[in-house]
Amino acid sequence: MTRGLLLALAGLVLALMTVAACTTKPTIQGASLATVQAHIDAATRAAGSDLKPFLALCKPAPATRPKGDDHRLAALIAKPAPPPGKAFDNLYFLGDAWVSAWALDTSDGIILLDALNNGKEAARLIEGGLRQLGLDPARIKYIVVTHGHGDHYGGVNYLVGRYRPRVVMSDADWTMTATNLEFRSAYWDAPPHRVKGRDIAAHDGEAITLDGTTVTLYVTPGHTLGAISPVFDVTWHGVRHRVLEWGGTGFNFGADFARLDAYIASTDRMQALAQQQKIDVLISNHSSFDEAPAKLARLRAAPDGSNPFVIGTSAVQRALDVMGECARAQRDRFAMVK
Ligand SMILES: [Zn+2]
Hints:
Layout: H1 3-17, H2 33-47, H3 70-78, E1 85-88, E2 91-95, E3 100-106, E4 109-113, H4 119-132, E5 140-144, H5 150-153, H6 156-163, E6 166-170, H7 171-179, H8 193-196, E7 200-202, E8 206-210, E9 213-219, E10 228-236, E11 239-246, H9 257-277, E12 281-284, H10 287-290, H11 292-301, H12 313-336
Bound molecules: zinc ion.
C-alpha cells in the first residue's frame, strides 16, 4: 500500500469520525479515494524536490475546527527564535520558531507584515530584531495583518501603543475578529479593534504606498474569509524581484466546502497573477513553509551568492499548485463522507 493511499484512508477515517459536525453541502460529485489520491499525486509532482514543505497541507485535516491548544502554543512560543535577518536589500525577517513577521523598509518608514503572538514577542522579536538589524522600530508606519488569527495580530496593540502605526486588515477579518473570533488563546493579546477600533479595512487590490514602495493587498479567501496576500517589489544587490506573501495556509476551519472552494480559487487566481506580474519570490507567515531561517543562514554564509528566496516564477506557481491540489484532496475527503 502506498504512503499516499494510507494518507487518504487515514483522512477518510478521520472524516467519518467527525462527520456529524459538518454543516455545509458538498459541491463535488464523484469524490473517491482515487480522486483524493490523484490530487495528492498532482501535488507531489508539483512540489518536486524543492517545495516539499508545502506537502504537509495534503495530510488529512480535521472535519471540525480544532480548539485552541494553549499547551502547544506555549511550547511553540518557548522554542528558541531564529535570529532576525535580511532577506533582501529592503526586506527583513522577524519571527519566532513558528510564526513570522516581515519588515519592508522604505526611506519614509517601515511597513510591517504581521505582529506575532503578543506584545512580549513584539517587543523581543520585532522591536529587538529591528534594532539588531540597525532599523528603528519607531519608523513602523503600517502594520498589515495577513489574517485575523492571534499569531498574526497578537503583537499589534503593543506596537500601536508605542509607535501609532496604522493597522490594515481585510474588511472580512476586521468583522470576524470583532464579532466571531475563530480562535482564542491566553497567549494572544486582544484583537486590534479592542484598543483603537477598526482602522484601515483593505479591499481586494487596494495598495499602501510609502516613498514609492507599493504593497498591493490581494484578498485571498480560504484560510480565513479575508486573508490578505501582499505583493510588492524588493531588490537584491540592486536587482528588482517581485514578492508574494501567501496570507494563510492551513485548513483549520473544518469541513467547510465554501472555504475550500474559495481557497482553491485563490490559489488559481494567484498562479495567474504570478505569471502576469513575474512574481519570483514566495514568502510565508509560517517558516515551516518557506524555510526562511535556513535561507537566511545560507545568505549569511554566502552574502554574495544567489539569493535562495528567489525561486523563480514557475516555482511560485508550483507552490500555489501544491496548495490548490491539497485543498482539492481535502475537499474530496470531506465530500466522500457527506
Ligand atoms: Zn491562521
